[in-house]
Specification:
about 190 residues, alpha/beta, Rossmann fold, 5-stranded parallel sheet, two-stranded antiparallel ribbon, about 45% helix, binds flavin mononucleotide, NAD(P)H-dependent oxidoreductase, oxidoreductase activity, FMN binding
């Protein structure tokens, strides 16, 4: 029997009631229902300081950098949900990936790994502009395989049901389409001859 797809879910926000983390909760449930194995990684818990070359030279790379590389290496695919701050991905997310990119195993863990991006924001565009920058950062700079499909949840303050799901069926369908593309791509890459 084929092992379930391991999909690493990362939020670009460490805020307790983060809309992006809540969007990942919805995605995790959908992935689980589809037979995949969602795995969460809390970037805040990695406790990575802001990258500083002097700090790195004096103290080495923090353990959290390797923890992120290990999580990436163990995953068949990655799903990132990030807010935009001034139309840019969050410092939490960029800083974590910067630290991870300093580790020797990062390239092998990231190269060609399929990534789907989603975002959520109380604003109308749902963080869409940050995804454009994130796409470039992940694909061109770090070598991930970023999928064409993405999903931005605007008006996030009113988008969730009390139980945590998405209130509008059309938005759940849009999220599902991204997740389906991620699963299909990861499956194809795992079984290239199939
Ligand atoms: C410094 C800063 C800049 C922000 N810039 C934007 C922005 O450019 N576009 C937007 O839609 N929301 C922006 N916001 C609002 C965030 O989308 C909002 O705080 C959101 O709840 C953060 O995501 P989270 O709920 O996952 O923590 C900004 C918030 C902060 C703190």
């Amino acid at each position: 029997m084929t092992a379930p797809l391991r999909i690493l879910l990362i939020s670009g926000s460490a805020r307790r009631d983060s809309f992006n983390t809540r969007l990942l909760d919805v995605a995790a449930a959908r992935l689980h229902e589809a037979g995949a194995e969602p795995q969460r990684l809390d970037l805040g818990a990695l406790a990575l300081p802001i990258y500083d070359g002097d700090l790195e030279a004096a103290q080495g790379q923090p353990a959290g950098a390797q923890a992120l590389v290990d999580a990436l290496a163990a995953a068949d695919a990655l799903l990132i949900a990030s807010p935009e701050y001034n139309a840019f991905p969050t410092p939490l997310l960029i800083n974590a990936l910067d630290w991870a990119s300093r580790r020797p195993g990062f390239k092998a863990a990231a190269q060609g790994k399929p990534v789907a991006m989603v975002s959520a924001s109380p604003g109308t565009l749902g963080g869409l502009r940050g995804l454009l920058v994130l796409r470039n950062f992940l694909a061109v700079n770090l070598g991930f395989l970023v999928l064409p499909s993405q999903f931005a949840l605007g008006g996030a303050g009113k988008a969730f049901e009390a139980g945590g799901g998405l209130a509008e069926a059309a938005r759940l369908e849009a999220l599902d389409a991204v997740l389906a593309e991620l699963r299909a791509t990861a499956t194809a890459l795992r079984n290239p001859a199939a």
